[in-house]
Specification:
Elements (H helix, E strand, L loop, with lengths): L1 E4 L2 E4 L2 H7 L12 E5 L2 H10 L1 E2 L2 E2 L6 E4 L5 E3 L11 E4 L2 H10 L4 E6 L1 H10 L3
Parallel strand pairs: 3-8, 3-9, 6-8
Antiparallel strand pairs: 1-2, 4-5, 6-7
């Protein structure tokens, strides 16, 4: 992430961006997305279990998953109309298709390689 610090644009870490930046930062100002290809249920459990300042991760960072209909299902209503920044998809093809729809907004894709190998092993030969 980069943050405008007056006349220069320096890279800073994500948590520093949210909590320790010398200027006020709003999560609503982030329009880039990260797509994580992994099983949805364990990812959601992690988002509930992992806490930052006694808040579940899903209530600190707008998160959701890609539904079967291609729409994003939000994991928290805490962010109002703010779209999730971190999107979990259980299928690599669906994640790729989703990213192709708005290539300027999908900044990073993370693929759980173990899950991809598992899915590949289940395919008929």
């Amino acid at each position: 992430m980069t943050h405008d610090l007056g006349r220069r644009s320096d890279s800073i870490g994500g948590l520093e961006y949210l909590f320790n930046s010398p200027m006020t930062s709003q999560i609503a100002g982030v329009n880039q997305r990260v797509i994580v290809v992994t099983p949805i249920a364990p990812a959601r459990e992690m988002a509930l279990a992992f806490q930052i300042h006694d808040q579940p991760l899903k209530d600190v960072l707008p998160m959701g998953h890609l539904g079967d209909d291609g729409r994003i299902k939000r994991w928290s209503n805490r962010f109002g109309v703010q779209e999730p920044i971190l999107i979990v998809a259980s299928d690599l093809d669906a994640a790729s298709e989703f990213a192709e729809c708005e290539p300027d907004r999908c900044n990073l894709a993370v693929v759980n390689a173990n899950w991809a190998q598992y899915e590949q092993s289940r395919q008929p030969t």
